[in-house]
Design goal:
Length: 311
């Protein structure tokens, strides 16, 4: 009783557990900031950047299934089996449903649809696994035990805006991942330029969708806990998107140096011929060396993915 009063008086929270969730949220912001800084210098070591330096390889489907599963299992356990929750209001149920819905897809469906994905090194796999336990607990514990919303929250503009953004982001993420999968025929492992959907506007539409999704979730939840996850996701995914984009830029420059013909884009000036960059047998990891040998004086050039704009 005394300790609860102290927590409320000193920190403005009701008890130790609520303080724990707030601390976990701030720590997540900190982790995101640190990861963002590290990723200025180190490529996120899975997928196209996988490297044995980061541990032994784990089969990509097994890795995605195991690492993401805690974000589904922990909330399901807390909601259905924990006795330490309050009766859930409709708004809490919907918000928990949004989180669980994403992870039903991410852990039970996405891994088994992957085509030709690279094995995940053990260290990023273990980090993702620990993060999913951490975040699954943080979001689900808050929504099942502490979050109190007004009875009309589901008609509040914040909930409606957040839910709409979440749904749109989810659709963009699913559709973009589907486009990426379709780029490969069974057995292929190389890389091609994605087209269609939001890939017409950005080079990493799947990451953009996921960022929008969690910002929508944060607006709908209107809590520190969800904001920390949205912030973390933004820092991680925007860094990975920049790495993908930078690598593509460097590859284009490298091939230009090898006398790849230039094409002229009517509307936007000179661009490189992206299709020629995508030699069918070009294995992307070999080209990571290009990152270490950027071509001087070329950094101002822009990349456009659709050569149809060019003549
Ligand atoms: N919330 C978070 O913090 C977080 C963090 C990371 C990822 N995610 C989500 O998890 C999902 C997957 O992430 P990711 O980093 O693995 O995405 P990714 O690097 O874009 O790869 C997704 C899949 O598509 C393949 N692929 C990518 N680009 C391709 C191309 N140009 N041609 C042919 N195949 C291509 C990849 O194969 P390879 O394996 O051979 O590269 C992989 O199987 C995304 O939806 C992302 O939003 C979320």
């Amino acid at each position: 009783m005394f300790s609860q009063s102290m927590f409320r008086f000193v920190l403005g929270v009701d008890n130790e557990s609520e303080l724990l969730l707030e601390s976990l949220s701030w720590f997540m912001f900190l982790m995101g900031g640190c990861a963002f800084l590290v990723m200025r210098f180190v490529n996120m070591p899975y997928g196209r950047f996988a490297s044995r330096k980061f541990g032994f390889p784990v089969n990509v489907k097994v890795a995605w299934f195991i690492q993401e599963f805690p974000s589904l299992a922990v909330p399901v356990y807390l909601v259905f089996f924990s006795t330490d929750i309050r009766p859930l209001q409709l708004s809490n149920q919907l918000l928990l449903g949004m989180f669980i819905c994403h992870y039903i897809h991410r852990s039970l469906m996405f891994p088994f649809l992957i085509r030709g994905g690279k094995a995940t090194p053990f260290i990023p796999f273990a980090c993702a696994f620990i993060f999913c336990i951490y975040n699954g607990y943080l979001q689900a514990r808050y929504l099942s035990k502490y979050a109190v919303y007004p009875s009309d929250w589901i008609t509040d503009p914040r909930f409606l805006t957040g839910f709409t953004l979440w749904l749109f982001g989810l659709s963009v993420n699913l559709h973009s991942d589907h486009i990426l999968r379709k780029l490969r025929k069974p057995g292929e492992t190389g890389y091609k330029i994605p087209q269609g959907g939001m890939f017409e506007y950005v080079s990493c539409a799947n990451f953009l969708g996921e960022i929008m999704e969690w910002f929508g979730f944060a607006i709908a939840c209107w809590s520190l806990q969800s904001a920390s996850f949205a912030g973390f996701g933004f820092l991680i995914l925007s860094s990975r998107a920049a790495q993908h984009h930078r690598l593509a830029a460097l590859l284009l420059m490298r091939r230009h140096r090898q006398r790849t013909p230039l094409r002229t884009c009517k509307r936007r000036g000179t661009v490189f011929d992206a299709e020629r960059w995508l030699h069918p047998r070009l294995d992307w990891p070999h080209c990571v060396t290009a990152v270490k040998r950027p071509v001087s004086g070329q950094s101002g050039n822009k990349i456009f993915q659709r050569t149809s704009e060019c003549r």
